[in-house]
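Q: How do we represent a protein-ligand complex in a form that can be generated token by token?
A: Start from the inputs.
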Amino acid sequence: MYSRRRILGAAVAAACVAAVPTAAVAQQKMVLKASDVHPLGYPTVEAMVRMGNKLEKATNGRLSIQMFPAMQLGGEKEMIEQAQVGALQIARISVGPMGPIVDELNVFNLPFIFRDEQHMRKVIDGPIGKELLEKVTNNPQSRLVVLGWMDAGTRNVYAKKPFTKPADLKGQKIRMMGNPIFVETMNAMGGNGISMGFSELFSAMQTGVVDGAENNPPTLVTHKHYEVAKFYSLTGHLIIPEIFVFSKASWDKLGKADQDLIRKYSREAQMEQRELWDKMVGESEAKLKAAGVQFVKVDKKSFYDATKPVREKYGAKHAALIKRIEDTK
Ligand code: GTR
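Then emit the structure tokens for the protein with beta-D-galactopyranuronic acid bound:
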């Protein structure tokens, strides 16, 4: 009896010791720094700002989000690194620069892996999307907790000239995101892929360091790239979703209730961003056309066939996952 009471006493004491820091941590006031390469008003940024407002309201100001938009904290590679060490809490980034960190994500970075945007949404909304997010969170090397997906539409090539087939891209230096898959994709498409951070792109286009780039209509409008590139060739070679991640180092300092609250609002942010996104794609296309940008129809099959070696090279070890993506109807 005596020893049982002692054991019980010890257990209670241990529980108390454990409870004190947890409670203290849960009550801590925290300003969560969030970052995005896009400016205020862009769908990804707006969804995060709204999430911050909800968080602040629900916790009476104890938790809030301080947004650093428009590359204030650097490009996406820098944002990932800052989140990994806990200098930044939330980073909204493309899956593109995440591929070198968690290899499975590279499947989404393959050219023409999705039939269209609807197909991509089906995949990220279903079991594959959930599994991949868990893979990133559970990968000790990522040091990130993924909060959700966002949309980034379809990427098409833009430059001073139209490109309807691979031969047209010969000699053209086209900026690609930092991931070898993208450089090889552009080389296979007939051009010269140049890996470059997003923050350097506008001046690189102005000074002719590159001849063009590739991206979705909202980015082309928001970052004024259309001022130096009037031809938008509808290659549709990449449909890459975005993700927003939380620093694991900072996540572990949050109480369970706060983590649950952030998860709840993250799901809402994901859905809100999608709505904002669809609206902005329509508006951006209209703005581009009004500004004299030519939307060029291309021989898509020729680009699809030309990029087959890239799908084979990088996709071979993920054959089962690719088959599941193809089978998602
Ligand atoms: C945009 C995307 C950014 C960034 C950028 C790029 O579409 O939203 O996250 O990846 O493209 O090309 O670097």
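The CA atoms of residues 48 and 190 lie 38 Å apart. The two ends are 64 Å apart (CA to CA).
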